[in-house]
Amino acid sequence: MNEKTKRAYEEAKKVYAEYGVDVEAALEKFKTIQVSLQCWAGDDVKGFENLGPVASENVVTGGYPYAARNGDELREDIEEAFSLSPLTHRVNLHSMYAEHGHPRNDLTVEDFREWIDWAKAKGYKLDFNTSFFTHPMMDKGNSVCSFSKEVRDYWIKAGIDSRKISVAIGRELGDKCYNNFWFPDGTKDIPANRKYYRELLKDALDQMLAHKYTEEESKYACDVLEGKWFGISTEAFVVGSHDFYIAYAAKNNLGVTLDTGHFRPTEDVADKISAIYPFVNGLMLHVSRGIHWDSDHVVIEDDGLQGMMNELKRGDYYGKVAIGLDFFDASISRVYGWVIGLRATAKAILKSLLEPTAMLQKAELEEDKSQRLLLMEEQNNLPFNAVWNYLLESKGIKSGLEMEKELKRYEREVQSVRK
Ligand code: RNT
Ligand code: ZN
């Protein structure tokens, strides 16, 4: 370790101690927090099924080369990204990344064997999603809310199987696998019968989620429902709205996913955690960055991200609320995107752990709102970088221009020469 880094870290510890923050304890806590990387950013949410030309229900723009074309390439790219992040990593899978050529509604845990064995070998945990999109069985953008029973049944079967797959993955890796449900279903223009669509969705969920997990199964899987405000081609109406899922999850003892890009741009998603968490069975985040809309830009250090992580710290939600990332941008290197998003998330988590939360909350309880605001401002000038640099150096992780060099090397020596 560089002497300067070590010295700056020792000085920083003293400064934080004055604010009642134990830096070493924060670094210990940091190790326990897991972040699930969205595998789907590595190939623009295409999957490995060779379905021919099918419409995509996830808008990914840009023509950057080197998208991963198979499991080995995708896993290699993920490992490269992880090598530049100090987080404890999970990988979030979609069913379109099955590797044995079976149809999407006829998958078992064995279709994900390569992923599971790799995760075991590397010490990662996995999360799962059924891809209810980008497939010939989609009916004009609809899956479980299609007016065709054949289409609905196709996807309901996929949803039922996803829970068996998740439990099996969780069991093998000895950890809870979050099984996310997101359906693009909705209408471009104003529906004449919202109620009917919602009945279709309720009926589909009732069937998919009919099996109640045993106590043992619920250690290894948690079903979470991801709502959305609007999408491209569902501007007027999304069947699976947040209200629908929060109500459905609360009533049926299920979990909810909050994607930070899926709300009105002025809504504060951090505010929703304490409002929802006590009443549902599991909460997952899809940390994203919307510009004007659900644009899924790469996550960077901004107020939204920091506010979310501060909320997780302040409410003691770390380890209780699952953190997943969800962004994709094909106009830049996908590996750079992952690294930028992972490191931004890591910084926001670490900064939240170094927040003088006890002081802030004491000031609040004593109704000293002046002090509360002053301390919130002041903490922005605490020596965070000294702790961040120490964390990276102690793990041998490159930063700055060295990191950039490594990513360029990877692109040149690995990605660009793939046959
Ligand atoms: C789409 C949702 C969903 C997807 C992934 C691919 O709006 O955010 O989570 O991004 O399932
Ligand atoms: Zn999402």
What this model shows, in words?
Helix content is 45%, strand content 11%. The protein is of the alpha/beta class. An 8-stranded parallel barrel has the order 1-2-3-4-6-8-9-10, surrounded by 5 helices. The longest helix is centred in the middle third of the chain and has 25 residues, at 149-173. 45% of the residues are buried. The mean pLDDT is 98. The structure holds L-rhamnitol and zinc ion. Residues 226, 259, 286, 326 line the site of zinc ion. Zinc ion binds next to loops.
Strand order of the largest sheet: 1-2-3-4-6-8-9-10
Order of helices and strands: HHEHEHEHEEHHEEHEHEHEHHHHH
- What class do helices, strands and sheet pairing give? alpha/beta
Q: Please give the alpha-carbon distance between the first and last residues.
A: 39 Å
What would a concise description of this structure say?
Helix content is 45%, strand content 11%.
Q: Mind sketching the topology for me?
A:
Elements: H1 3-18, H2 23-32, E1 34-38, H3 71-82, E2 88-92, H4 113-122, E3 125-129, H5 149-173, E4 177-181, E5 186-187, H6 194-208, H7 215-220, E6 221-226, E7 237-238, H8 242-252, E8 255-259, H9 270-276, E9 283-287, H10 303-314, E10 321-325, H11 334-353, H12 357-365, H13 369-378, H14 384-394, H15 400-415
Parallel strand pairs: 1-2, 1-10, 2-3, 3-4, 4-6, 6-8, 8-9, 9-10
Antiparallel strand pairs: 5-7
Helix pairs in contact: 1-14, 3-11, 5-6, 10-11, 12-13
The structure holds L-rhamnitol and zinc ion.
L-rhamnitol binds near residues 40, 129, 182, 286 and 294.
